[in-house]
Amino acid sequence: MEELDEIISIESPDIDVRQIMDSIQEQLRKRAHLPPEMSWEELEEWGRKVEPPLYADPLHELCLAIEYARHHAPVSAEHPVSSGKPVIGPLVVLVKRALRKFMRLYLDQVFSPQSAFNRKMLEILENIREILVEERALNDYAAIDRLSYYESWGEDFGAVCDRLRELVDLFPEGVEITNLYAGRGEFLSVCGERGRAVLGVEEDAVLVSRAREMGLRVEHLAPREFLEKTPQGGMRAAFIYEFGERMHPRELRRDVELLGEKLGKGAELVILNHYPRSFLGCEAAYRDPTILRLVHPETMQFLLARAHFHEVEITPRGDEDTGRLREEMESVLAELEKARPGARGIADELLLPAFYLVEARR
Amino acid sequence: MDEKPIAFVSVRYGEDVVGGAETHARLLAEALQRDGFPVEVLTTCARDAFSWENYYAPGEEIIGGLRVTRFPADRLRLRPRRFHRLARMIDEGWRLSRREELKWLKAVVYSREMCEYLKKNAERYLAVVFIPYLFGTTYLGWERVKEKGVLIPCLHDEPYARLGIFRRMISDARGVFFNTIAERELAKRLYGEKVKGYIVGLGMEDFAGDGERFRRRFGLEGDFVLYSGRREGGKNTPLLVRYFCNYLLHSGRDLRLVLTGSGSVEVPAGFEGRVVDLGYLKEEDKRDAYAAATVFCQPSTNESLSIVQLEAWLAGTPTLVHGGCAVTRSHVESSQGGLWFHDYHEFHAALDLLLEQPELRARMGQMGRDYVLRNYSWDRVIGRFRRGLRECGFLPGEEA
Fold this sequence. Notes:
The complex is a heterodimer. By secondary structure, chain A is an alpha/beta fold.
């Protein structure tokens, strides 16, 4: 009998749900003030005061509307017949049934154009949805979703982390850093290693969800929208990787203006971008099909100065690999210079570090 | 294989019939047939559990390879005031006479022709399996076949379960097959240790849902809590919506509650964008929804198995259940596959923990999945069913 009744329990050395629930209940007992639970009526009252909800994504609203329409599209005379009247109830049901039988011949005819119209409208809505999805994909960076690119061909997460690790020290201790265009969350991850407070902001939902899966703190919002919502002087430190490389120049100008307004006096802005003068920089950047253009360091300096960043320092910055490559090329370059005086200068330019670092202060 | 067929008696039956016990009956009957048991189904012509109108034609038909015989559904015509008075008395825990209980039972639904058929043909069957306990087709049918009767009660801790007629039926039945240990404990608490109860349950087919496909199809982004099933007070969905809206206000999180299934959902003003009602979904979409969800919540306290909870685990999603439901909570305690809540503050803290710890979530989902595969695979369920029949003397003992 025991075997028959057996329900096999799953044991785990690291999870005990009873223990977790005990600790939750213990914490709740210890807390002096728990948030008040609102009744349905209180929630309704609160809800009436707020603005109507804005959908984060209009496509989402359209999808739900189509789903709703699909449920209500078929129109038919089919309807359960019943009667609550005592004694004569069964008679009423019989009469209703008989009536429905005759009426159906007429009603189905009447309803059929409406049903056909509904079907057609649904088709049209579905087409609109498909067009929107396609258009959105086309307008996505190089029609490629970034996570798929990173996972299939892109640079390894750890390699980017190595590149960004030292930059954390450029920010003063105890200040929360805002990482705009946070991507997969490499900078958030290295900040986490060092116990630094950081908030990521990223528009790409897939990247956000990947970063959140790793336990990183990311707000799912277009960075421009985030900046617009931030109060004047409300940010104390910001870091951006590949800034302006996936957007139109006018969007870059607007972002820099907003950074000028939202970073407080003395706040630190650090940017790490591909160096367009460097062959290595161009090669590294354009291997990524989601990058549209490179921003020249002088252009960046000009935009930052216009946005009232008073101290702007730009330094070329390469990975360890770049340094090693230069060393290996040294003898070749010397030979080249011997064979054709002045050639080394051009080669030097091409082998400039792949990135440039911007440190700007308000 | 045994010559005599097993009869399944279900108040409603069909691929288009929505209902937990009815689906249970169909899936188990089909699985037994696949395993070599000859199985027949006896049911009514009703499709809708509110009007009980005779929708299907009486007579025989083949559904999923099984012979299904339909009998007209009957309802004792009581004056509405009388009927509601009886229902209210049951709800409030009054003691009714046997005559009154039978009146109420017949006023809900039963089938006179099916009872007559069972009385005449009981000997044709190896066993007659009644599912669930609540309806006239079960009680009145069981009275006609008694020694041939096996019950799959799908018992809930509800006022109807305390009626004398059900007490008698469940404690006297030759065999009662429960879905979970918690359900059997409830029966023993209600009816005493005399209950001859065996755990059988329902088999679950493994599946792989595509969460990304679901998100693309319905334009959903970010974390969301999923509920799937009938949306009604009895299933505690209004409580879930209220707790969830409170949670949004107090946590400030960007989170959605997605509800699928039948019935209507009321949402407080101002929360419409956060509580998403997708209505009845196709099976594929429902499976994708399980895979896409961050957490699956089952707030119902009236469950005898909770198929949706087990399905969510098959998709690797952890579950958050009402601590007042012995069945769903015992699933969680036995599997380590989620957490439970008794009130809003526990709901808030448990949900916070699950949302903040993706690794814990993944681990819980995996353990829930292992629990379902090890306990509710068809092989195991059919094995338990067969042994249950043997223990009750319907099948000969095992050969040495």
